[in-house]
Protein backbone atom coordinates (compact mmCIF):
# COMPACT_ATOMS: atom_id res chain seq x y z
CA UNK A 1 0.00 0.00 0.00
CA UNK A 2 0.93 3.62 -0.51
CA UNK A 3 0.14 5.22 2.85
CA UNK A 4 0.17 8.91 3.81
CA UNK A 5 0.32 9.84 7.51
CA UNK A 6 -0.62 13.41 8.44
CA UNK A 7 0.07 14.60 11.98
CA UNK A 8 1.72 17.39 13.93
CA UNK A 9 3.92 15.06 16.01
CA UNK A 10 6.38 12.46 14.76
CA UNK A 11 9.73 10.85 15.54
CA UNK A 12 12.28 11.61 16.91
CA UNK A 13 10.02 13.01 19.67
CA UNK A 14 10.54 10.83 22.75
CA UNK A 15 7.12 11.02 24.39
CA UNK A 16 3.45 11.36 23.58
CA UNK A 17 1.85 11.16 20.16
CA UNK A 18 5.05 11.60 18.17
CA UNK A 19 6.60 8.49 19.69
CA UNK A 20 3.66 6.25 18.72
CA UNK A 21 3.08 7.74 15.27
CA UNK A 22 6.79 7.42 14.53
CA UNK A 23 6.85 3.77 15.60
CA UNK A 24 3.71 3.06 13.59
CA UNK A 25 5.19 4.61 10.45
CA UNK A 26 8.50 2.77 10.70
CA UNK A 27 6.77 -0.54 11.50
CA UNK A 28 4.55 -0.26 8.40
CA UNK A 29 7.61 0.53 6.29
CA UNK A 30 9.34 -2.58 7.67
CA UNK A 31 6.41 -4.65 6.38
CA UNK A 32 7.11 -3.38 2.88
CA UNK A 33 4.49 -0.64 2.71
CA UNK A 34 5.34 2.71 1.08
CA UNK A 35 4.91 5.32 3.83
CA UNK A 36 5.02 9.10 3.49
CA UNK A 37 4.51 11.50 6.39
CA UNK A 38 3.63 15.20 6.45
CA UNK A 39 4.55 16.64 9.82
CA UNK A 40 6.38 19.43 11.67
CA UNK A 41 9.86 19.83 13.04
CA UNK A 42 10.21 17.81 16.28
CA UNK A 43 9.40 20.11 19.21
CA UNK A 44 7.51 18.15 21.89
CA UNK A 45 7.44 18.04 24.90
CA UNK A 46 10.02 20.84 25.23
CA UNK A 47 7.89 23.23 23.14
CA UNK A 48 11.04 24.23 21.29
CA UNK A 49 12.27 22.94 17.93
CA UNK A 50 14.96 20.34 18.56
CA UNK A 51 18.52 21.55 17.81
CA UNK A 52 18.86 18.93 15.06
CA UNK A 53 16.08 20.61 13.07
CA UNK A 54 16.37 24.24 14.11
CA UNK A 55 16.56 26.78 11.29
CA UNK A 56 15.27 24.38 8.65
CA UNK A 57 12.32 25.16 6.38
CA UNK A 58 10.45 22.70 4.15
CA UNK A 59 12.55 19.65 3.64
CA UNK A 60 12.34 15.86 3.37
CA UNK A 61 14.31 13.25 5.28
CA UNK A 62 14.28 9.44 5.41
CA UNK A 63 13.68 7.91 8.85
CA UNK A 64 13.69 4.10 9.16
CA UNK A 65 12.32 3.61 5.66
CA UNK A 66 9.73 6.40 5.91
CA UNK A 67 9.86 9.53 3.78
CA UNK A 68 9.16 12.38 6.22
CA UNK A 69 8.17 15.80 4.87
CA UNK A 70 8.90 18.48 7.48
CA UNK A 71 7.17 21.87 7.65
CA UNK A 72 8.26 25.06 9.45
CA UNK A 73 5.68 26.33 11.93
CA UNK A 74 5.11 28.59 14.95
CA UNK A 75 6.15 27.23 18.35
CA UNK A 76 5.24 29.55 21.25
CA UNK A 77 7.79 30.05 24.01
CA UNK A 78 4.92 30.23 26.51
CA UNK A 79 1.91 28.04 25.75
CA UNK A 80 -1.54 29.63 26.07
CA UNK A 81 -4.84 28.57 24.49
CA UNK A 82 -4.66 31.36 21.91
CA UNK A 83 -1.02 30.66 21.04
CA UNK A 84 -1.69 26.95 20.78
CA UNK A 85 -4.46 27.59 18.25
CA UNK A 86 -2.06 29.75 16.22
CA UNK A 87 0.61 27.05 16.57
CA UNK A 88 -1.69 24.37 15.14
CA UNK A 89 -3.04 26.48 12.30
CA UNK A 90 0.47 27.52 11.29
CA UNK A 91 1.22 23.85 10.58
CA UNK A 92 -1.96 23.41 8.53
CA UNK A 93 -1.06 26.43 6.38
CA UNK A 94 2.61 25.45 6.12
CA UNK A 95 1.72 21.89 5.12
CA UNK A 96 -0.12 23.14 2.01
CA UNK A 97 3.28 23.29 0.31
CA UNK A 98 3.21 19.47 0.31
CA UNK A 99 -0.53 18.99 -0.06
CA UNK A 100 -1.02 21.06 -3.23
CA UNK A 101 1.14 18.84 -5.48
CA UNK A 102 -0.37 15.73 -3.84
CA UNK A 103 -3.88 16.85 -4.82
CA UNK A 104 -2.87 16.92 -8.48
CA UNK A 105 -0.22 14.21 -8.43
CA UNK A 106 0.43 11.08 -6.41
CA UNK A 107 -2.51 8.88 -5.45
CA UNK A 108 -2.28 7.14 -2.08
CA UNK A 109 -4.27 4.06 -1.14
CA UNK A 110 -5.15 5.32 2.33
CA UNK A 111 -4.55 8.42 4.47
CA UNK A 112 -4.08 8.20 8.26
CA UNK A 113 -4.75 11.45 10.09
CA UNK A 114 -3.60 11.59 13.72
CA UNK A 115 -5.52 13.90 16.06
CA UNK A 116 -5.01 16.25 17.85
CA UNK A 117 -5.22 18.84 16.46
CA UNK A 118 -8.88 17.99 15.91
CA UNK A 119 -9.20 20.08 12.72
CA UNK A 120 -6.25 18.41 11.00
CA UNK A 121 -8.64 16.14 9.10
CA UNK A 122 -10.08 18.88 6.89
CA UNK A 123 -7.38 18.80 4.20
CA UNK A 124 -7.02 14.99 4.01
CA UNK A 125 -10.82 14.70 3.99
CA UNK A 126 -11.01 16.85 0.86
CA UNK A 127 -8.17 14.90 -0.76
CA UNK A 128 -9.75 11.53 0.07
CA UNK A 129 -13.13 12.61 -1.33
CA UNK A 130 -11.57 13.82 -4.57
CA UNK A 131 -9.51 10.66 -5.00
CA UNK A 132 -12.15 8.28 -3.58
CA UNK A 133 -9.80 6.72 -1.04
CA UNK A 134 -10.32 5.85 2.64
CA UNK A 135 -9.48 8.24 5.47
CA UNK A 136 -8.56 6.74 8.85
CA UNK A 137 -8.69 9.22 11.73
CA UNK A 138 -6.86 8.09 14.87
CA UNK A 139 -7.62 10.08 18.03
CA UNK A 140 -4.92 10.17 20.72
CA UNK A 141 -6.54 12.98 22.78
CA UNK A 142 -10.10 14.31 22.75
CA UNK A 143 -8.74 17.82 22.40
CA UNK A 144 -11.88 19.98 22.40
CA UNK A 145 -13.54 18.06 25.23
CA UNK A 146 -10.37 18.45 27.28
CA UNK A 147 -10.05 22.17 26.53
CA UNK A 148 -13.65 22.61 27.68
CA UNK A 149 -13.37 20.49 30.83
CA UNK A 150 -10.05 22.03 31.90
CA UNK A 151 -11.42 25.54 31.33
CA UNK A 152 -8.73 26.31 28.77
CA UNK A 153 -11.37 27.68 26.38
CA UNK A 154 -14.50 29.20 27.93
CA UNK A 155 -16.19 30.90 24.98
CA UNK A 156 -19.25 28.71 24.34
CA UNK A 157 -19.77 29.93 20.79
CA UNK A 158 -16.18 29.16 19.87
CA UNK A 159 -16.41 25.72 21.52
CA UNK A 160 -19.59 24.96 19.55
CA UNK A 161 -17.88 25.93 16.29
CA UNK A 162 -14.99 23.59 17.10
CA UNK A 163 -17.33 20.72 18.02
CA UNK A 164 -19.21 21.24 14.75
CA UNK A 165 -15.97 21.13 12.75
CA UNK A 166 -14.93 17.97 14.59
CA UNK A 167 -18.33 16.36 13.88
CA UNK A 168 -18.08 17.29 10.19
CA UNK A 169 -14.73 15.52 9.93
CA UNK A 170 -15.55 12.42 11.97
CA UNK A 171 -18.87 11.89 10.13
CA UNK A 172 -17.02 11.59 6.83
CA UNK A 173 -14.09 9.40 7.88
CA UNK A 174 -13.99 5.79 6.71
CA UNK A 175 -12.61 4.67 10.09
CA UNK A 176 -12.27 6.46 13.43
CA UNK A 177 -10.16 4.85 16.15
CA UNK A 178 -8.89 5.79 19.57
CA UNK A 179 -6.67 4.38 22.32
CA UNK A 180 -8.89 3.19 25.19
CA UNK A 181 -12.34 1.78 25.78
CA UNK A 182 -13.32 4.87 27.75
CA UNK A 183 -12.33 7.10 24.84
CA UNK A 184 -14.15 4.76 22.43
CA UNK A 185 -17.30 5.39 24.47
CA UNK A 186 -16.71 9.16 24.49
CA UNK A 187 -16.30 9.22 20.71
CA UNK A 188 -19.36 7.00 20.18
CA UNK A 189 -21.44 9.37 22.33
CA UNK A 190 -20.86 12.11 19.77
CA UNK A 191 -23.26 10.17 17.49
CA UNK A 192 -21.59 11.21 14.25
CA UNK A 193 -19.64 8.14 13.08
CA UNK A 194 -20.39 6.03 10.00
CA UNK A 195 -19.53 2.88 11.97
CA UNK A 196 -18.36 1.81 15.40
CA UNK A 197 -15.31 3.57 16.78
CA UNK A 198 -12.38 1.15 16.68
CA UNK A 199 -10.02 0.48 19.57
CA UNK A 200 -6.41 0.97 18.46
CA UNK A 201 -4.43 1.09 21.71
CA UNK A 202 -0.91 2.31 22.35
CA UNK A 203 1.76 -0.32 22.89
CA UNK A 204 5.22 -0.99 24.26
CA UNK A 205 8.21 -2.99 23.04
CA UNK A 206 8.43 -5.48 25.88
CA UNK A 207 11.72 -6.88 24.61
CA UNK A 208 13.37 -3.47 24.94
CA UNK A 209 11.53 -2.00 27.92
CA UNK A 210 11.66 -4.67 30.61
CA UNK A 211 12.55 -5.11 34.29
CA UNK A 212 16.26 -4.58 34.93
CA UNK A 213 18.17 -4.81 38.24
CA UNK A 214 18.95 -1.70 40.25
CA UNK A 215 22.60 -2.02 39.32
CA UNK A 216 21.61 -1.21 35.71
CA UNK A 217 19.44 1.77 36.67
CA UNK A 218 20.43 5.44 36.62
CA UNK A 219 20.90 5.57 40.39
CA UNK A 220 24.69 5.76 40.38
CA UNK A 221 24.67 8.19 37.44
CA UNK A 222 22.33 10.47 39.41
CA UNK A 223 24.41 10.20 42.59
CA UNK A 224 21.73 8.41 44.57
CA UNK A 225 22.54 6.30 47.61
CA UNK A 226 21.41 2.66 47.91
CA UNK A 227 19.23 3.73 50.86
CA UNK A 228 17.44 6.46 48.90
CA UNK A 229 13.76 5.98 48.10
CA UNK A 230 12.85 7.45 44.72
CA UNK A 231 9.42 8.80 43.76
CA UNK A 232 9.58 9.43 40.03
CA UNK A 233 7.52 11.29 37.46
CA UNK A 234 8.67 11.18 33.85
CA UNK A 235 6.95 12.68 30.84
CA UNK A 236 5.21 15.81 29.67
CA UNK A 237 4.90 18.59 32.24
CA UNK A 238 1.61 20.07 31.11
CA UNK A 239 -1.76 21.32 32.28
CA UNK A 240 -3.77 18.12 32.13
CA UNK A 241 -1.59 16.26 34.67
CA UNK A 242 -2.05 18.58 37.68
CA UNK A 243 1.56 18.05 38.79
CA UNK A 244 1.54 20.72 41.48
CA UNK A 245 0.43 18.06 43.95
CA UNK A 246 3.86 16.40 43.64
CA UNK A 247 5.48 19.53 45.03
CA UNK A 248 2.80 19.91 47.70
CA UNK A 249 3.25 16.30 48.81
CA UNK A 250 7.05 16.63 48.79
CA UNK A 251 6.84 19.30 51.51
CA UNK A 252 5.86 16.57 53.98
CA UNK A 253 9.05 14.61 53.29
CA UNK A 254 11.64 17.36 53.73
CA UNK A 255 12.60 15.93 57.13
CA UNK A 256 13.24 12.56 55.45
CA UNK A 257 16.13 13.30 53.05
CA UNK A 258 16.28 9.69 51.86
CA UNK A 259 12.92 10.19 50.09
CA UNK A 260 13.61 12.02 46.85
CA UNK A 261 11.19 13.26 44.19
CA UNK A 262 12.68 13.14 40.70
CA UNK A 263 10.89 14.85 37.81
CA UNK A 264 12.11 14.03 34.31
CA UNK A 265 10.57 15.93 31.44
CA UNK A 266 9.70 19.17 29.72
CA UNK A 267 6.58 21.08 28.86
CA UNK A 268 4.60 24.25 29.35
CA UNK A 269 4.19 23.66 33.08
CA UNK A 270 7.85 23.08 33.98
CA UNK A 271 8.68 26.71 34.88
CA UNK A 272 5.66 26.87 37.19
CA UNK A 273 6.75 23.71 39.00
CA UNK A 274 10.35 24.90 39.34
CA UNK A 275 9.14 28.24 40.74
CA UNK A 276 6.97 26.42 43.28
CA UNK A 277 9.88 24.25 44.41
CA UNK A 278 12.06 27.34 44.78
CA UNK A 279 9.35 29.18 46.70
CA UNK A 280 9.00 26.31 49.18
CA UNK A 281 12.76 25.73 49.32
CA UNK A 282 12.53 21.99 48.71
CA UNK A 283 15.90 20.23 48.37
CA UNK A 284 14.16 16.86 47.87
CA UNK A 285 12.58 17.74 44.48
CA UNK A 286 15.01 17.47 41.57
CA UNK A 287 14.42 18.20 37.87
CA UNK A 288 16.10 16.41 34.95
CA UNK A 289 15.66 16.48 31.16
CA UNK A 290 13.94 13.67 29.31
CA UNK A 291 16.23 10.71 28.78
CA UNK A 292 16.87 9.10 25.38
CA UNK A 293 14.87 5.99 24.53
CA UNK A 294 17.92 3.75 24.96
CA UNK A 295 17.95 4.73 28.65
CA UNK A 296 14.22 4.21 29.26
CA UNK A 297 14.48 0.82 30.99
CA UNK A 298 17.31 2.14 33.19
CA UNK A 299 15.31 5.25 34.06
CA UNK A 300 12.21 3.27 35.00
CA UNK A 301 14.30 0.90 37.15
CA UNK A 302 15.52 3.93 39.14
CA UNK A 303 12.15 4.43 40.84
CA UNK A 304 10.68 2.78 43.89
CA UNK A 305 7.38 4.52 43.15
CA UNK A 306 6.13 5.86 39.81
CA UNK A 307 3.52 8.62 39.57
CA UNK A 308 0.80 8.53 36.90
CA UNK A 309 -1.24 11.66 37.47
CA UNK A 310 -4.03 13.50 35.70
CA UNK A 311 -6.81 15.91 36.63
CA UNK A 312 -10.38 14.75 37.22
CA UNK A 313 -11.60 16.80 34.27
CA UNK A 314 -9.27 14.92 31.90
CA UNK A 315 -10.81 11.53 32.75
CA UNK A 316 -11.29 9.33 29.66
CA UNK A 317 -10.37 12.29 27.43
CA UNK A 318 -6.71 11.25 27.43
CA UNK A 319 -4.85 8.14 28.58
CA UNK A 320 -1.39 8.59 30.15
CA UNK A 321 1.01 7.02 27.63
CA UNK A 322 3.74 6.76 30.28
CA UNK A 323 1.84 3.88 31.92
CA UNK A 324 2.76 1.49 29.09
CA UNK A 325 6.50 1.83 29.78
CA UNK A 326 6.08 1.65 33.55
CA UNK A 327 4.15 -1.62 33.49
CA UNK A 328 6.49 -3.14 30.90
CA UNK A 329 9.39 -2.37 33.24
CA UNK A 330 7.54 -4.02 36.12
CA UNK A 331 7.18 -0.73 37.95
CA UNK A 332 4.88 0.10 40.84
CA UNK A 333 2.58 3.09 40.21
CA UNK A 334 0.43 5.45 42.20
CA UNK A 335 -2.33 6.33 39.75
CA UNK A 336 -4.80 9.17 40.13
CA UNK A 337 -8.04 8.19 38.42
CA UNK A 338 -11.80 8.57 38.78
CA UNK A 339 -13.88 5.42 39.41
CA UNK A 340 -15.60 4.18 36.26
CA UNK A 341 -12.87 5.37 33.89
CA UNK A 342 -10.76 3.03 31.78
CA UNK A 343 -7.61 3.92 33.70
CA UNK A 344 -9.23 3.26 37.10
CA UNK A 345 -10.88 -0.01 36.04
CA UNK A 346 -7.74 -1.39 34.42
CA UNK A 347 -5.41 -0.65 37.34
CA UNK A 348 -7.98 -1.99 39.80
CA UNK A 349 -8.82 -5.17 37.88
CA UNK A 350 -5.20 -6.16 37.24
CA UNK A 351 -3.82 -4.99 40.62
CA UNK A 352 -0.80 -3.35 39.01
CA UNK A 353 -0.76 -0.17 41.08
CA UNK A 354 -2.53 1.78 43.81
CA UNK A 355 -5.33 4.19 42.92
CA UNK A 356 -5.59 7.59 44.57
CA UNK A 357 -7.95 10.52 44.36
CA UNK A 358 -6.96 12.98 41.60
CA UNK A 359 -5.74 16.47 42.50
CA UNK A 360 -5.24 15.62 46.19
CA UNK A 361 -1.79 16.24 47.68
CA UNK A 362 -2.99 14.68 50.93
CA UNK A 363 -4.04 11.45 49.19
CA UNK A 364 -0.72 11.35 47.36
CA UNK A 365 1.28 11.86 50.55
CA UNK A 366 -0.60 9.10 52.38
CA UNK A 367 -0.19 6.67 49.47
CA UNK A 368 3.57 7.34 49.25
CA UNK A 369 3.99 6.78 52.98
CA UNK A 370 2.10 3.49 52.80
CA UNK A 371 3.96 2.31 49.68
CA UNK A 372 7.34 2.97 51.36
CA UNK A 373 6.58 0.37 54.05
CA UNK A 374 4.73 -2.16 51.85
CA UNK A 375 6.04 -5.15 49.89
CA UNK A 376 5.27 -4.09 46.32
CA UNK A 377 6.54 -7.22 44.54
CA UNK A 378 3.09 -8.54 43.62
CA UNK A 379 2.17 -5.24 41.96
CA UNK A 380 5.38 -5.35 39.93
CA UNK A 381 4.73 -8.93 38.77
CA UNK A 382 1.15 -8.06 37.82
CA UNK A 383 2.30 -4.99 35.90
CA UNK A 384 4.76 -6.91 33.75
CA UNK A 385 2.23 -9.69 33.16
CA UNK A 386 -0.32 -7.11 31.98
CA UNK A 387 2.18 -5.57 29.56
CA UNK A 388 3.04 -8.94 28.08
CA UNK A 389 -0.61 -9.83 27.55
CA UNK A 390 -2.20 -6.57 26.42
CA UNK A 391 0.49 -4.10 25.30
CA UNK A 392 2.49 -6.22 22.86
CA UNK A 393 3.79 -3.97 20.11
CA UNK A 394 4.00 -6.62 17.42
CA UNK A 395 0.50 -7.93 18.07
CA UNK A 396 -1.14 -4.49 18.25
CA UNK A 397 0.46 -3.18 15.08
CA UNK A 398 -0.12 -6.46 13.22
CA UNK A 399 -3.85 -6.22 13.98
CA UNK A 400 -3.89 -2.58 12.87
CA UNK A 401 -2.05 -3.46 9.66
CA UNK A 402 -4.54 -6.20 8.80
CA UNK A 403 -7.48 -3.82 9.32
CA UNK A 404 -5.74 -1.18 7.24
CA UNK A 405 -5.40 -3.70 4.41
CA UNK A 406 -9.07 -4.67 4.84
CA UNK A 407 -10.08 -1.03 4.47
CA UNK A 408 -7.95 -0.67 1.33
CA UNK A 409 -9.32 -3.92 -0.10
CA UNK A 410 -12.95 -2.92 0.55
CA UNK A 411 -12.36 0.42 -1.12
CA UNK A 412 -11.39 -1.38 -4.35
CA UNK A 413 -14.71 -3.29 -4.41
CA UNK A 414 -17.90 -2.00 -6.08
CA UNK A 415 -19.78 0.32 -3.74
CA UNK A 416 -22.61 -2.22 -3.32
CA UNK A 417 -20.15 -4.68 -1.73
CA UNK A 418 -18.38 -2.23 0.57
CA UNK A 419 -18.83 -2.26 4.34
CA UNK A 420 -17.64 0.47 6.71
CA UNK A 421 -17.41 -1.69 9.82
CA UNK A 422 -13.95 -2.12 11.30
CA UNK A 423 -13.30 -4.18 14.44
CA UNK A 424 -10.09 -4.99 16.25
CA UNK A 425 -11.50 -8.21 17.65
CA UNK A 426 -11.87 -8.82 21.37
CA UNK A 427 -11.41 -5.57 23.27
CA UNK A 428 -9.39 -5.35 26.45
CA UNK A 429 -9.22 -2.66 29.14
CA UNK A 430 -6.19 -0.69 27.87
CA UNK A 431 -4.78 -3.01 25.24
Automatic annotation (TrEMBL):
Residues 15-203 form the Glycosyltransferase subfamily 4-like N-terminal domain. Residues 219-388 form the Glycosyl transferase family domain. InterPro entries: Glyco_trans_1, Glyco_trans_4-like_N. Residues 411-431 are annotated as: Disordered. One of its GO terms (molecular function) is glycosyltransferase activity. Keywords: Transferase. NCBIfam families: PRK10307.1. This is Colanic acid biosynthesis glycosyl transferase WcaI.
Amino acid sequence: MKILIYGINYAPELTGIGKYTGEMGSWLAQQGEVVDVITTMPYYPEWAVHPSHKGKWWYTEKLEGVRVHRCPFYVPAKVTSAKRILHEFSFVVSSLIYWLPIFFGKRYDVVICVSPPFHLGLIPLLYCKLRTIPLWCHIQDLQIDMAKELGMIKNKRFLNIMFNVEAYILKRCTVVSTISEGMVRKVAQKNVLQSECALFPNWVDGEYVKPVPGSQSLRSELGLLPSDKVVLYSGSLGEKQGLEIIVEAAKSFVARPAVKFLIFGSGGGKCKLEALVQEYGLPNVLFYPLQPYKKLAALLATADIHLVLQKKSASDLVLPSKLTGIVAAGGFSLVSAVPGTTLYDTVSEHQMGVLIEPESAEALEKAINKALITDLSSYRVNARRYAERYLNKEQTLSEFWQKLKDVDRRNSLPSSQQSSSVSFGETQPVR
